[in-house]
Automatic annotation (TrEMBL):
The lineage of its organism: Bacteria, Bacillati, Bacillota, Clostridia, Lachnospirales. It catalyses: N(1)-(5-phospho-beta-D-ribosyl)glycinamide + (6R)-10-formyltetrahydrofolate = N(2)-formyl-N(1)-(5-phospho-beta-D-ribosyl)glycinamide + (6S)-5,6,7,8-tetrahydrofolate + H(+). Pfam families: Formyl_trans_N (PF00551). One of its GO terms (molecular function) is phosphoribosylglycinamide formyltransferase activity. GO terms for cellular component: cytoplasm. Belongs to the GART family. This is Phosphoribosylglycinamide formyltransferase. Pathway: Purine metabolism; IMP biosynthesis via de novo pathway; N(2)-formyl-N(1)-(5-phospho-D-ribosyl)glycinamide from N(1)-(5-phospho-D-ribosyl)glycinamide (10-formyl THF route): step 1/1. NCBIfam families: PurN. Its EC number is 2.1.2.2. One of its GO terms (biological process) is 'de novo' IMP biosynthetic process. PANTHER family: PHOSPHORIBOSYLGLYCINAMIDE FORMYLTRANSFERASE. The record marks D150 as: Raises pKa of active site His. Keywords: Purine biosynthesis, Transferase.
Amino acid sequence: LKIGVLVSGGGTNLQAIIDRINDGTITDTEIVSVVSNKENAYALERIKKYNIKGKCIKPRDYTTRQEFNFALRDHFISLGVDLILLAGYLVVLSEDFVRAFPNRIMNIHPSLIPAFCGNGYYGLKVHQGVIDRGIKVTGATVHFVDEGTDTGPIILQKAVEVEDNDTPEILQRRVMEEAEWTIYPEAVRLYAEDRIKIQGNRVIIT
Ligand code: GRF
């Protein structure tokens, strides 16, 4: 399985996936390209010691948004990528891009979708929303990407408790440690083993 990864920042989810490939949990899988929209994304630093190829492709280098999306699409097509992972990617992809890889793009979102997702809910805003509403359980979701924002078929979810003294930063860290870094590699493993079937909006794991 050839994987392409899109990142904007720290890349801790990318790291978790690299670790599961390197320890043999995920088999027959190679990360062939990591693309960032930011030159200084720490994710691009992380991959150097694994000899994974990194690249920066950013909207500003193209005259139109469409050209940017086509460049990104053609980059992954030229590498023969089977699966694209959004791992803390903060750019909204066009419908053209998404349609080029139907049910072959995954994303991780730091809440239990459909709560605290969609436009406006990203990064710390998700966790701030959870705290403001006073809910007791949050979590993370891995889903396929469709033309909407956080609307595609849900692959895996894991719950995480909210504690009384949580700040958005503390909660963000707990959701990563207890949910994201487990379920994202797990979803990739299931995909690599061809165990994910989609029936309408539902994902069946075999
Ligand atoms: C994670 O919280 C993820 O759920 C969200 O962006 C963050 C990325 O963190 N989509 P990292 O770059 O993987 O460390």
